């Protein structure tokens, strides 16, 4: 059974940092595009960052320069380093993988999702 499990969320003050992890099981993620999305209360799901199998990355405009996505294919793990956090970053963060080697940061291009991990940033 394919499964993604996120961890690393929590509460932090503005300006602080958190690192999210996503562990995949049931299949090998190395050839699949992976991404982080987030959803704040009352808002739609937003693409945060994505990465392909060889490490090419892309970021949403609101997190460029503050967040870094990377992957460890040996451990089947996706990570998101979040620095200079702002209150607007408060959301549930989801890890997702696409059936394709490349995908846009659009939720319909991803077919497997984790259960999410909450990030709360206080100002």
Comma- or semicolon-separated keywords:
single chain; about 120 residues; mainly beta; 7-stranded mixed sheet; 11 strands
What does this structure look like?
About 0% of the residues lie in helices and about 50% in strands. It is mostly beta strands and about 120 residues long. The strands form two sheets. Strands 2, 4, 5, 6, 9, 10 and 11 form a seven-stranded mixed beta sheet that branches. A four-stranded antiparallel beta sheet has the order 1-3-8-7, with no helix packed on it. A hairpin with a 6-residue loop joins β4 (about 35-40) and β5. The chain starts with a strand and ends with a strand.
Topology (SSEs and partners):
Elements: E1 3-7, E2 10-13, E3 18-25, E4 34-39, E5 46-51, E6 57-59, E7 67-72, E8 77-82, E9 91-97, E10 112-113, E11 117-122
Parallel strand pairs: 2-11
Antiparallel strand pairs: 1-3, 3-8, 4-5, 4-9, 5-6, 7-8, 9-10, 9-11
Pattern of helices and strands: EEEEEEEEEEE
Mean pLDDT across all amino acids: 95
**Helical percentage:** under 10%
Q: What fraction of the residues are assigned to beta strands by DSSP?
A: over 45%
Radius of gyration: 13 Å
Main beta sheet, described? 7 strands, mixed
Structural class: mainly beta
As residue ranges, the low-confidence spans are: none
Q: Count of DSSP helices? A: 0
Shape: globular
**Terminus-to-terminus distance:** 40 Å
Record field, number of beta strands:
11
